[in-house]
Amino acid sequence: MGQVATKGRGWQGAVLKLLGGDDFELTVTGTEVVTDHYVRLEFTGGGLLAKRALHPTMWIRMWFDDAGKLHQRGYTLVDADPAADTFGIEFAIHDGIAARWAQHAEVGDTITATVMGSKFTMPGDGVRGWIIAGDPASLPAINSLLDAIEASDCPQTPATLWLEYQHESDKTLPLRARAQDTVHWVAREHDGAALVDAVRSSAVPAADHFGWVALDSVSTRAVAASLRNDYGIPKKSVKAQAYWIPGKSFA
Ligand SMILES: Cc1cc2nc3c(=O)[nH]c(=O)nc-3n(C[C@H](O)[C@H](O)[C@H](O)COP(=O)(O)OP(=O)(O)OC[C@H]3O[C@@H](n4cnc5c(N)ncnc54)[C@H](O)[C@@H]3O)c2cc1C
After folding, report:
1. Pocket test for ligand 1, best of 76, 103, 250 (most atoms within 8 A of CB)
2. Where does the record place the FAD-binding FR-type domain (predicted)?
């Protein structure tokens, strides 16, 4: 881990430092335009993967510069290779500081990331199926979950995927669904309510399933509640995290 710039992070940076968040300098080693609204960058981790153990859905806090002020945003490690300290990061593109940075990134560019707060353990053998709800921002995490299910002792466990799209091209994104999985793409309508309604109206008893939800903040809460109340999945078997805030920058 080299010396990295921490000036300009404000109170969030100070809190993360106090909590012991480690900083790493990432370097861009490759760029790929996946669709008109999705960019993938390759990175070396500046020692990140030597210091931190990998887990499915693992995410980091990247610091993006906006006129001298640094803003942290969560992004997910994709296809990480701990021995080589390399990984990809996939960016859903919208009008935001992080998305703009990704669109203009070039090989050799560097950016600081803090590792703090990412935690997920795969559930055990008792899970009979997965109900997963996400969108292009959480597609990288969903792919890492599907990879982890495939690599587990129960690779046949099916997943039902509820995926929200805003652009036609989102439906062509590289989703790692397997033959036993069911995929529903739902257009984002009524500020996300369309996907919430679709999940609710398809409810079946699923107490032995595991639920994983990462959408905008309002939809995340609503879908997680539906998985508990309408599908009967126990609270401890539902992992939900808001990935973005509609109409507002993420802190
Ligand atoms: C744990 C975690 C992991 C994440 N992993 C990824 C990842 O791997 N890839 C990825 O693309 N995103 C990921 N996200 C989401 C990403 O951090 C947010 O989308 C973030 O707000 C983007 O920052 P920004 O500076 O581009 O936009 P912001 O400044 O935060 O927002 C600007 C505007 O864009 C809108 N906006 C923000 N995000 C989205 C979106 N996804 N879709 C549509 N509109 C949006 C906001 O409502 C606002 O109006 C993750 C979030 C978390 C919490």
Report:
1. 250
2. 21-123
Buried b (16+ CB within 10 A) or exposed e, 111-140: bbbbbbebebeebeeebebbbbbbbbbbbb
Out of 91, 115, 139, pick the residue that ends a domain. Answer: 115
* 223: enclosing H helix or E strand: helix 217-229
The pLDDT score that the predictor gives to residue 201 is 98
pLDDT (tens digit, 9 = 90+) per residue, 11-61? 777 777 766 678 999 999 999 999 999 999 999 999 999 999 999 999 999
Which domain range does residue 168 map to? 129-240
| Those residues with Cβ within 8 angstroms of residue 50's Cβ, 6 or more apart along the chain or in another chain | 82, 85
Same domain flag for 170 and 82: no
Whether 193 is in the pocket of ligand 1, judged by its Cβ within 6 Å, is no
CA of 109 to the centre of ligand 1 (A): 21
Domain identity same for 44 and 140: no
CATH code, domain carrying 229: 3.40.50.80
Atom of ligand 1 nearest to the CA of 75: 5
Number of domains making up the chain:
2
